[in-house]
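ok trying again, last paste got cut off:
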Amino acid sequence: MPIPIRSLPPVIAILNGAAGFFLVLAYIFIRQKKVAWHRACIFTALGCSAIFLTVYLYMHFEAGVIRFSGQGWIRPVYFSILVSHTILAMVIVPLVFITLMRALRKNFAMHRAIARWTFPLWLYVSVSGVVVYWLLYVAYPPIWPA
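nice, full thing came through this time. structure:
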């Protein structure tokens, strides 16, 4: 039995929110020099993001474009958030990979240098993904394709 496409947006938002939560925990742990906990949270955030991407691509492959139904002042607000989220979501993938590879290779000076950029951008992508979900599916329910 196929997964109902309309049940996937909350799953996607939860995965985005969870990734953001684990990123914040990872930041707190590394500031406390709890490297093992930091690593566990980063890999959990990475797993949440990877599952998110898989579910997101599956949903949009099956459902197509979901049209935003908000009108008036909220449209430019929504599309501004969506565009910044989308661009940074594409940018963050190689940044996460490079940051992770530098840590795995124990090149911690270079890891820290890029992580200062990766962390806030990845966190923005995760949080803005939840905001996009809320605007598109909760505040202004979409017009689903036929």
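cool. The domain at 5-139 is CATH 1.20.1260 (Ferritin). The chain has a mean pLDDT of 95.
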